[in-house]
Input
Amino acid sequence: MSDKELKTSDSVVMEAQPKETNDEAELARLGYKQELKRDLTLVQNFGVSFSIISIITGIPSLFLFGLLTGGPAVMVWGWVVVSVFTLCVGAAMAEICSAHPTSGGPYFWSAKLSTAKRAPLASWITGWFNLIG
Output
């Protein structure tokens, strides 16, 4: 039976309440109510990710510099090494995101992971690093 269907009990009709998910319970523990719809399709998710990565603007600006200063081999192996470290950072951020599922993103995480005294500074630094890339 779906959440929208009606249940009957002793001739009383009640609407079934949707069950609270683990994310909603965690948000309630943090003092928030879930309001963000999480229903991006695969194509929408790819579009947002691709626009954030900014491949189109990154290649022309750095390709010539890499070829002149290190050559093709340095560019290939540099890409491999940087990709491994980028995946490590992404895995760490994904773990934090799954533990604190809020729409505030990195600012909220950095505030929660730092001490109460340094939370505003940690969020401020995270915001600026996020802005400048």
Summary: The two ends are 47 Å apart (CA to CA). The beta strands are 6-9, 12-15. Residues 1-17 have pLDDT under 50 and may be disordered.
